[in-house]
Amino acid sequence: MEGLRLSLGGAAGGAHLKNISCHAFSTLMEFAVDARGIVKVYEKTSRALDGVDLQVRPGKVFALLGPNGSGKTTLMRILTTQLPPTEGHADVMGHDTVRESGAIRGLVGYVPQEMSVWTDLSGYENMLIYAKIYGIPSEARRRLIDDSLEGIGLSDAKDRLVRSYSGGMIRRLEIATALLISPKILFLDEPTIGLDPVARKAVWDKLTSFKKDFGTTVFFNTHYMDEADLYADEIGIISRGRIITTGTVAELKRSVGGEVLVLETESNGVDAATLEMVRGVASVRDVALGESELAVIADDAETALPGVMRILGNSGAMVRKVSMSAPTLDDVFLKYAGTRLESGGRLSDVSRVRKTIRRGG
Ligand SMILES: Nc1ncnc2c1ncn2[C@@H]1O[C@H](COP(=O)(O)OP(=O)(O)OP(=O)(O)O)[C@@H](O)[C@H]1O
Ligand SMILES: [Mg+2]
User: Fold this and answer.
1) HSE-up (13 A, CA, CB side) for residue 276
2) Nearest-atom index, ligand 1, CA of 223
């Protein structure tokens, strides 16, 4: 149970440090994560990280988006103090990951990519083991565990063996174990890998409400673009061990280029003079006339639309339908990484591995 071992390492090390007051520095702290020039070379040859610079502001949900093997897990292991970098350094919640690893472990919740709960124990029993590892006093354990299970929506299932849980319930239980210490920053490595859309949404609903209640910084790895799009305040794109760009979803999409307005018109409805006028509307970059549609490329389609509609109306062109398309994160990935981000392939392998562990095989 590789994931569990890693969790134990992180949690146990920090248990005795839980009384540290981090409030004073966390309110002043500029970055929850501040990584500079991180290089990681495995076995002297495999360069998993190739000079990572990354800053995440406190209280944000940050998604590290990248394909299989791009270095997401390696970076997360360095940030959670499980691995030392080969070069460079990183601060997490104001502490150096190598010199002050103990302090960081008391502030960090971590849910590994691999399964980190026992399938032959109940949800409650799993939580109890983690509570003991984290050094939570015995008189406080039951209430804390019950509250955590309630918060994550597992109260009704807490006495059932985990092997009877769905994949989404298991993931929520793993997240509940990480939340036992009320972490200042939560690291989630592929939090919804292998889950169906309903289970993914249930996991994110719980994470979103936890984040809202506690203002915790959330750092998650994913190769689901829609997940990064929906839930992240900011995104970093990683490819071959390098962060190739960061920003909000809107900023990244804008950086790809304009939005596209498609106006379906009656044929022959748009003449050359009208086209020229549309070209002159604020924010419009270009226009293209098809058989029965006019495509308008604009920096901001919403700004351009009223002006375009007015001109078409005045020219007598009948607009039957308007649609708007924006660049997707896949377009962003293509622009910066020079390739499409595929989410197939090894996803099924990971899902299979998780199932194998669950069966105890
Ligand atoms: N313990 C290790 N020893 C040697 N090479 C490793 C080790 N762990 C990872 N690597 C290599 O480092 C690179 C980055 O791996 P990492 O697991 O960090 O990527 P990832 O982005 O998390 O991938 P995935 O999406 O599949 O989880 C890969 O080429 C991987 O094979
Ligand atoms: Mg990984």
Assistant:
1) 3
2) 25
72 lines ligand 1 (CB under 6 A): yes
Q: Is 70 in the pocket of ligand 1 (CB under 6 A)?
A: yes
Whether 43 lines ligand 1, by a CB cut-off of 6 Å, is yes
Which residue's CA lies nearest to atom 27 of ligand 1? 68
* Mean pLDDT in residue range 315-328: 85
What is the number of other CB atoms lying within 10 angstroms of the CB of residue 313? 11
For the chain, what are the domain ranges? 2-253+340-358, 258-326
Cβ proximity of 218 and 183 under 8 Å: no
- Report, at the CATH architecture level, how domain 258-326 is classified: 2-Layer Sandwich (3.30)
pTM of the entire structure? 0.77
- DSSP secondary structure string for all residues of 322-334: EEEE---HHHHHH
- Which residue has the CA at smallest separation from atom 12 of ligand 1? 48
Instruction: Report which ligand 1 atom has the smallest distance to the Cα of 190.
Output: 27
In this predicted model, what pLDDT tens digit does every residue of 111-157 receive, in sequence order? 999 999 999 999 999 999 999 998 999 999 999 999 999 988 899 99
The CATH H-level (homologous superfamily) assignment of domain 2-253+340-358 is P-loop containing nucleotide triphosphate hydrolases (3.40.50.300)
User: How far is Cα 179 from Cα 353, in angstroms, rounded to an integer?
Assistant: 24
| Minimal-distance CA residue to ligand 1 atom 3 | 42
